[in-house]
């Protein structure tokens, strides 16, 4: 019997789920953004998978170690769990073209999304792509899905303008997930 494809929300980590401190390396400094846990619970309440896809160029740059990345990842999961929320899967790109050469997994590249789709039986065109940068939401167009930008203080103005023209702009992560759920 074939398993029905799952709907998912592909979501960025730094600046979308946790405060972006620029190459986070200290698990004790990890801070969930306001409303992040309740927004993820909203997705899970309607059986929508939450998949984090994050660029972590600090690894390639030598600014953080893989162990530090893992400790920050684990702390984020602990904080989410304290509020009854969780992430179904997480994928990261440790590369940067200036240090490691080009790769297919660095967003807006599709390799990590393709991997998640295959590994978790995700219906990509019935999914949404959420983040605070254009590179986070741009893959939605490839899959025929919905891209939703949630601007942060660090979001470039051109990313916001482009999202207004080619995707959706939400005022908060909760608003983004509500939009994603309403359109799945």
A few lines on this structure:
This protein is of the alpha/beta class and 184 residues long.
Topology overview:
Elements: E1 8-11, H1 36-45, E2 49-55, H2 57-61, H3 66-82, E3 89-93, H4 97-100, H5 111-120, E4 128-131, H6 134-137, H7 139-143, E5 146-149, H8 157-166, E6 168-169, H9 173-182
Parallel strand pairs: 1-2, 1-4, 2-3, 4-5, 5-6
The major beta sheet can be summarized as: 6 strands, parallel
Name the strands of the widest sheet in spatial order: 3-2-1-4-5-6
Q: Report, as a whole number of angstroms, the end-to-end distance.
A: 24 Å
What is the total domain count? 1
Give the assembly state of these chains.
Answer: single chain
Number of strands: 6
Offer a few descriptive terms.
single chain, Rossmann fold, 14% strand, 6 strands, 184 residues, 41% helix, alpha/beta
């Amino acid at each position: 019997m074939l398993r029905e494809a799952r709907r998912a929300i592909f979501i960025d980590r730094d600046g979308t789920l946790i405060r972006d401190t620029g190459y986070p390396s200290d698990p004790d400094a990890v801070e969930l953004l306001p409303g992040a846990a309740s927004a993820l619970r909203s997705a899970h309440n309607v059986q929508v998978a939450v998949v984090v896809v994050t660029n972590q160029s600090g690894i390639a740059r030598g600014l953080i170690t893989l162990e530090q990345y893992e400790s920050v990842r684990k702390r984020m999961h602990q904080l989410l769990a304290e509020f009854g929320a969780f992430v179904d899967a997480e994928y990261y790109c440790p590369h940067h073209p200036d240090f490691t050469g080009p790769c297919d997994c660095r967003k807006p590249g599709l390799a990590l999304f393709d991997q998640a789709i295959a590994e978790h039986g995700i219906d990509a065109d019935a999914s949404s792509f959420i983040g605070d940068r254009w590179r986070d939401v741009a893959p939605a167009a490839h899959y025929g899905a919905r891209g939703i930008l949630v601007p942060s203080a660090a979001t470039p103005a051109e990313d916001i303008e482009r999202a207004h023209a080619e995707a959706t702009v939400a005022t908060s992560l909760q608003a983004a997930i509500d939009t994603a759920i309403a359109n799945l």
